[in-house]
Amino acid sequence: MQPNFLLAGIAALSFFGGHASAERLQAAVIGNSSYNVAPLANAARDAATVAEALANVGFEVSTYFDVERQEIETVLSEISEQFETADISLLYYAGHAFQFDGKNQLLATDIKELTREEIEAKSFSLSEVLAASRSDDVGVGMSLIIVDACRDDPFSTVDQSIRRGLAFEESGRAETLIAYSTSAGELAYDGPAGGNGPYALALTRALQDNKPTVSSVLRTIRRDVRVATGGLQIPWVVGSIETDPVLSTDEQEIDPILEGEGEVPPLDTIVWGFVRKDLTEDTLAQFVLNFPSSPFAPEADARVRQIRANREGDSRGIEVIGAASTATLNELAEARQQITADFEFKPDTTLPSELFEIWPRELPASGSGLGTIVTRCDLLAADPADPRRIAPPIRSGLVNLREAARACGFALARDPDNPRLQFQFGRVLEIAGRYDWARLYYLRASREYSAALTNLGYMAIEGIGQEKDYEAAAEYYRQAAEMGNLRARTNLGTMYIRGEGLPELPEEGILWYRLAAGMGWANAQNALADLYKKGIGIEKDLQASAALYHLAASNGQRAAMNNLGVSYLRGLGVDADANTAVVWFDRAIQEGDRFAPRNLARHLMKAQGDQVDGGRVVSLLELATNRGERRAYLDLANIYRKGDLVEKDMELAYLNARLAELSKVKKSDELVANLKKKLSDASVEEVEAEIKRRQRLNGI
Questions:
Q1: Which of 46, 88, 488, 624 is exposed most, by the fewest CB atoms within 10 A?
Q2: Which class is domain 4-240?
Q3: CA atoms lying within 13 Å on the CB side of residue 309
Q4: pLDDT digits (tens, 9 = 90+) for 58-91
């Protein structure tokens, strides 16, 4: 049963990280999951995860779960009082949010029905939260407000005054930032039930860096979330800061899991690196159970006994505000494990959801079924590209490193020769940046596990944790390809076509492509279509190219969706059909493709007269830049320069031209020089300052 003080109404916990510091770091965390209507799977769990991460780096944290509307004023008043003398204050909100009558609104959990009146009655504005987080009457330092919301949209269809997503509201004060988990008007990922959302995971990882500064944390989060969601979620930061303080105490220890070289330590030592800071009884007890002879077992056992002794007396620096009981981090962690008990795991797949049953909380009882072999390691670290995985896949950016490392380490302690577990533990270590350790576990699994060989090949060809080694990559891929791995077969074909680590033999590469494509690997189908389109190593055949693009696109390959859109737009192998092209561009955009937004925008720009929707064109081009298509900066610069689709704005034209120049887009330097002549020195200086601010907080 979940502790009542955590889930019934409001509960606030104060965490004390236990570090001495010259800075006073204060944080408040709000996690709203258990809505009466439209509940969220992971918001409260994300709040608990972020609260623990902040406490570990030295913040004093108050955490509020499932706040009802009548409690909002009290909560905001407590937060305002808590932040009064903070050198750095941080407020994190996870839950529902939307735009109501043009204003950003957050939602209390006691909403009873989806009506305009009820939504209006149970919402509170982001402006109220901003006002509570920093008062003009006191000398507070830097303030950071993080809105990890808009995970679902059951509201915009209720009334035309309600719009999904949030507008980028400015803080209006110096040394104050608002970090949004996704782009304006867009939805964020809630993550798999029982897991964490990508923003919360990215935040906790960024805080583990050595001396994480405000700007480095925000840039890291933006990059990691974009990668984790395949470009579908793009965080953004607004506001202005003059300083860039470290978001941890001066005495913050660097986790040994993130540093050090030399020989790979024993399994228990690696796992202890992920467990050593944990204050939860279950994790520490599991360590003792699985590694009874470890030199770290006595410390873990002593801490278990200390936690048990503190349950009814002294807590570990955690006070429940407004309640008669006390709680420990152990109890919070237990609640976090149970907080999503009413949700089940939905597979991460581009195939139609109706083809899948929701992954159950408990597998069927069977003497030889999946329930006998699936481990928590599988549920937390299964690789989407592993043909032998036995659980729903987890993208790398959604892997909770500490929980997955513990689960896989404990599973390996019980079954040390299991190649699937060795591979998944290696994957977790690779994501954690311990490439030398990852290679060892990949090598142990590689004797009979093709996914391990494929990952070794990728690390070699990309120079991940080592010098690039094309010959080694080719050998790893060959071994995996002979074991039937379709990803390896495709990559091996690419190496033959490019002559990287192997003789340049396009005809051999095409055979490997054909083999993988014929067995259903969509990436190989798209790659083979490219060769037919360009006539590389094979006679040019646009009809075959379009047919293969269609096959790959139907199998969910987003690059093929964009390529098929181009084929229909230009009549390449199919009859030209602009409407069908738009359909495929839209599908590619929905899947996160970075080129499709620009292609669609440029097509829309060719419409006649008033038929051109300038606002949509600009939005598509901005989306393209956020996903990494830098040429769209130049398109935006020319649109603002000409002023025929939107109002002419020479400063915005110069801003985008400079961003294109910094991204090394061809011909951008010429446009920059021409635009600079038309602006005053003051305007140029203002734009350059904005570019520096953007680079600092969001990157380019």
A1: 88
A2: alpha beta
A3: 6
A4: 888 888 888 999 999 999 999 999 998 888 999 9
- DSSP 8-state secondary structure symbol assigned to residue 249: -
pLDDT band at 333 (very low <50, low <70, confident <90, very high): low
> DSSP letters of 603-666?
HHTTS-GGG--HHHHHHHHHHHHHHT-THHHHHHHHHHHH-SSS---HHHHHHHHHHHHHTT-T
Residue 597 contacts residue 589 (beta carbons within 8 Å): yes
Inter-axis angle of helices 681-697 and 214-228, nearest 10: 70
Return d(Cα 259, Cα 275) in angstroms, integer.
16
Say yes or no: do domains 4-240 and 446-519 share a fold.
no
Residue at 628: amino acid letter: G
- 185 sits in the region (left: phi over 0; alpha: psi -120 to 50; else beta) called left
Q: Where is 147: in which H helix or E strand?
A: strand 142-149
Residue pair 415/421 in contact by the 8 Å Cβ criterion: yes
Percent of the chain with pLDDT over 70: 85
Among all chains, which residue has been given the structure tokens 């009655």? Answer: 121
Domain boundaries, the chain: 4-240, 265-338, 446-519, 602-697
566 sits in the region (left: phi over 0; alpha: psi -120 to 50; else beta) called alpha
Tallying the residues shown for the chain, one arrives at: 700
Strand 103-107, strand 97-100: pairing: antiparallel
Largest CA distance in the chain: 79
Q: Which strands make up the sheet holding 103-107, listed edge to edge?
A: 123-125, 103-107, 97-100, 162-163
CATH 3.40.50.300 correct for 446-519: no
Distance CA 25, CA 59 (A): 5
DSSP string covering 367-432: SSSGGGT--HHHHHH--TT-TT--S----GGG--HHHHHHHHHHHHHHSTT-HHHHHHHHHHHHHT
Cα(10)–Cα(8) distance, integer angstroms:
6
Identify the three-state secondary structure at position 25.
Answer: strand
Q: Cα–Cα distance between 406 and 421 in angstroms, integer? A: 12
Determine the Cα–Cα distance for residues 172 and 240; give it in Å rounded to an integer. 9
Residue 65: C-alpha distances to residues 1, 71, 145, 397 (Å): 16, 11, 17, 25
Q: 237 CB contacts (<8 Å, ≥6 apart)? A: 177, 178, 179, 180, 218, 222, 697, 698
Q: What is the pTM of this model?
A: 0.84
SS3 75: helix
Beta strands in 171-247 (DSSP E): 176-180, 236-240
Residue 515: other Cβ atoms inside 10 A: 18
Q: Is the pLDDT of residue 253 over 80?
A: no
Element (H, E) at 29: strand 25-31
CA distances from 89 to 28, 84, 168, 237 (A): 8, 9, 20, 16
Q: By the 8 A CB rule, do 183 and 627 touch?
A: no
C-alpha 297, offset from chain centre: 34
Nearest to 278 by CA among 55, 12, 20: 55
